[in-house]
């Protein structure tokens, strides 16, 4: 039989080439799918930076490009946290900005005029394509099956758990950090497998890049030592592990210390101590291995026991001593909240007030990972079966990341890669066994051993599926699951994760899209029609957006580095005007910005966040602001006629409803968010005046009045302007006394 | 390899020849104490001042007689130095024969003695003694209307004031003269009546037209002033574009003419007494009441304009709408700024669109001619009833890479096209490197001060040479670049860096 032309292509060395080419094409397609599935918001809206934090990153990137790297490094930003300012250059992870800056300059070198905004918008999708490739590499290290890597890459490309943080416009640290995370792990596995200094050094290099890009690098810092520690405990010490770990630790720690924001944390902070400890431990183990070669067994046993005890005692004592003396910083608050989900709510309300720091709800796992979540345990089980060094890594990673993802919504992101690996291992095993056209040959029977004691079925273990029926059923159901997965991912991405949140979309009755653009309306008004250094006070959520879009100094922003300052703003918002006005004057505030959804039914407005302002203010001034005062006697949070006096007199309440009632017929004002009827009279503002209100009333800006020209207080001045009678001083006069001085 | 070298050499050879008719405006320097020679006499002068728009448009018809013994050809027209820079689109024609085109006009530095700056009109042929010519002078004066009261309530009417002299400031003795004012409406609460200048009431009022004069000023020395102030209702925005940058990008490969315009816009009307009230604005918009705020700009686009966009510093402005052109009719771009622009408020934005190049570009006569002719509008701009004034306009025409021998010419019609003479337009050539250019694209920049939307339909012609070699430069460069990358990659791949023993 002459070899058919197909055989020439599929077999032998040219067959290898064909398969290689096919693999490259598939990977490119996966990367393209990963990029394009993230473009929903660009197509639907425009190329715009999303949400809150990305606006800061975008602003910082523009600063980097305009002023160069060194002034970026030394950037002291006096336009945020007025009047304190922020040492921005030393308190950010520069990796993201530098990456886009480098891309920008390369394109400029090729004289391709790409707007920096478009680079920032497209960075996350671009890197997600790279993540899919890195995923392929990582999974291929775990399995011999050629399909596992490709499946993992495809899963990683489109799974919503990762898309949630990497759609176009979501220009945040996670955009590049997940790629770096996966790639660093790939390099680490490679290093452990080969025991090569080169791979170890490469791991350190990408680890350094990761440190410069995201605070989540601590995850790597702890996971790799844990991997090594577990390997040591399993008695799997080898020179490979020793070489790769010491190379990584020495170079990686040095690299990470180059970032000003990290600085000396790797040797002073408890979060990093495990890496240092394992580094010491592996030296001891290596030394013990060395000694073992020279000493007889019994002496070696004694030496080992005493050495272990001594080291442990010394190490533990030293750690406690250093912690007490303050050389090693105690665990950070965010770290505690990882172990005790209730910790933040009690001690650090500012962390608890962020929705992405809430514990994960169970449906979220299915929502973000779909059928991967039930393939995940199967994949982990298969790792237990093989349990080489790299499989140990998968097991540890799965256990840790599962726990963390359950504690904080945001950490779903670190779970996603390992879920993809494990699920791909499981699924590729199924497909490899069931997607085989030839029936398993039964010739092995002839060689069957004649061991009568064992069962007949185990005597001749023939692995393979005979029945076409079972093959087709399994393959069909797997195909169905895969198709459902794609449909689910597309649906979730399109509906849940592709809203820029700066622009709100709604539908008109005829089905056409109607865009509510109130944020940008107000921000652009500020940008165009106020002095360049007008200070804007708002709740910290909007700080970055005001800095980025309105280009005006703010009091507080999403950096939240100074809790007291935020509490001051909270106090100003939640107190009476007489209390707030001096605070506003002391902080040079020119305009106050509030977000109000009552007209439109926009639920993310400031009145719904108001209790967090109260709580945070109460944390600093427990005597002046009390959360209880804002609830009615029956414990309800109300804004209508029944609202408590503290609520009705608070600046936030007044600013939200100022003049709102005049839009409605008398007595029929409705708040559509809280679905309540409002009092007849709109609240009276004395110390502020309405400066601008956006079309749908979502953003309202108030100008802080200057001191009265005649030296009256503002309530009297307003009353006079309205033609009201001046209130008689009600102070009861005491009996006249003779003045003696 | 020889081919490669040749390519590189060919790419690097500069082919950008100096262009020819580019002008740099220069001002005539006059000696201090200069007085225009009294060689002319204005026999009759009629000044029409149009106040219907947010700037002042004046057309003056004057019969001029040479009273000197020599033929004369320089006629001086004075303006106070502080007004001079705001005079736009200055043009003088022979009223009897406007189709002969505009006269050549120079302008001078300020004369310190009387603070005047002069336009010097060069008559095409010297005017013989005792003979007469009728000049038609037209121009607009920007930013000469000031709101009074300077601050108003949000729903109040807006009033503008305009001050001028009843006697036309002229360098020469004028025998009779009158001024006609055209107001936008009947509502003119204040105006200065004159006494003793003429018999009968002055001004004469007829509908929206007020006439000052005719005055017999044969005995009045030139330069005598008689100030008049009028105040009239103008409840429309006073739209002022501080700067308009307009880019026209010609692409031969793409067959596309891309236009982008960047506006820095401001409403120079009355400012708000109190702060902006959204409630009141909602009611005003609902009733469609006249307002001094700028609500919307309508921008007619040429037929065949596609892909329009309207963005500002922070992204797309979603409130715009484009009604594309059908057949020969113009498309209409309705631009609604993010917020209503009240007096004293600013708004800057950019818009752009594409056109098919074929309707603007012709290859010059001759089969193998490398010469091209581009005919495009100098400015387009929104079309508003209240008019728009442009303080400064910078037009850049980005020609294909390697275009050389660039010339431009403004097209004249029988009427005023709202543009100043060629001497008032600053033109220069430079290069712009973009989209993988090696040499950079030849860019013709025209800068004009003080324009109004009267210049909307003015066109100009750019001719340039562009050969096949120029057109092939970019593909060859990219080819050479990629070739270099592949050869380098292959070469690096060949190097063995392993430390194993062989």
UniProtKB/TrEMBL annotation, chain A:
Cofactor(s) needed by this chain: Mg(2+); Mn(2+)
UniProt xrefs under Pfam families: STT3, STT3-PglB_core
Regions that span the bilayer: 21-43, 91-107, 119-139, 145-163, 175-191, 211-234, 246-267, 273-295, 307-331, 364-384, 391-409, 415-437, 463-487
Top-level taxon in the UniProt lineage: Eukaryota
Enzyme Commission number, as recorded: 2.4.99.18
Main function: Catalytic subunit of the oligosaccharyl transferase (OST) complex that catalyzes the initial transfer of a defined glycan (Glc(3)Man(9)GlcNAc(2) in eukaryotes) from the lipid carrier dolichol-pyrophosphate to an asparagine residue within an Asn-X-Ser/Thr consensus motif in nascent polypeptide chains, the first step in protein N-glycosylation. N-glycosylation occurs cotranslationally and the complex associates with the Sec61 complex at the channel-forming translocon complex that mediates protein translocation across the endoplasmic reticulum (ER).
EC class (word): transferase
Protein name: Dolichyl-diphosphooligosaccharide--protein glycosyltransferase subunit STT3
Residue ranges annotated for the STT3/PglB/AglB core domain, each copy included: 536-585
GO biological process, one term: protein N-linked glycosylation via asparagine
Keywords of the record: Endoplasmic reticulum, Glycoprotein, Glycosyltransferase, Magnesium, Manganese, Membrane, Metal-binding, Transferase, Transmembrane, Transmembrane helix
One GO cellular component, as annotated: oligosaccharyltransferase complex
Any one Gene Ontology molecular-function term assigned to this protein's record: dolichyl-diphosphooligosaccharide-protein glycotransferase activity
Reactions mediated catalytically: a di-trans,poly-cis-dolichyl diphosphooligosaccharide + L-asparaginyl-[protein] = N(4)-(oligosaccharide-(1->4)-N-acetyl-beta-D-glucosaminyl-(1->4)-N-acetyl-beta-D-glucosaminyl)-L-asparaginyl-[protein] + a di-trans,poly-cis-dolichyl diphosphate + H(+)
Residues of the Oligosaccharyl transferase STT3 N-terminal domain: 22-422
Main subcellular location of this protein, as a coarse class: endoplasmic reticulum
Subcellular location, record wording: Endoplasmic reticulum membrane
Membrane topology: Multi-pass membrane protein
Pathway: Protein modification; protein glycosylation
Family: Belongs to the STT3 family.
Annotated source species: Penicillium roqueforti (strain FM164)
Automatic annotation (TrEMBL), chain B:
Pathway annotation from the record: Protein modification; protein glycosylation
Subcellular location, record wording: Endoplasmic reticulum membrane
NADP found in the keyword field: no
Membrane-crossing segments per the record: 476-493
One Pfam family of this chain: Ribophorin_I
Keywords annotated in UniProt: Endoplasmic reticulum, Membrane, Signal, Transmembrane, Transmembrane helix
GO cellular component terms listed in the entry, alphabetical order: oligosaccharyltransferase complex
Chain residue ranges for the region called Disordered: 183-206
Quaternary structure annotation from Swiss-Prot or TrEMBL: Component of the oligosaccharyltransferase (OST) complex.
PANTHER family: DOLICHYL-DIPHOSPHOOLIGOSACCHARIDE--PROTEIN GLYCOSYLTRANSFERASE SUBUNIT 1, RIBOPHORIN I
Function of the protein: Subunit of the oligosaccharyl transferase (OST) complex that catalyzes the initial transfer of a defined glycan (Glc(3)Man(9)GlcNAc(2) in eukaryotes) from the lipid carrier dolichol-pyrophosphate to an asparagine residue within an Asn-X-Ser/Thr consensus motif in nascent polypeptide chains, the first step in protein N-glycosylation. N-glycosylation occurs cotranslationally and the complex associates with the Sec61 complex at the channel-forming translocon complex that mediates protein translocation across the endoplasmic reticulum (ER). All subunits are required for a maximal enzyme activity.
Descriptive protein name: Dolichyl-diphosphooligosaccharide--protein glycosyltransferase subunit 1
Provenance organism: Penicillium roqueforti (strain FM164)
Lineage: Eukaryota, Fungi, Dikarya, Ascomycota, Pezizomycotina
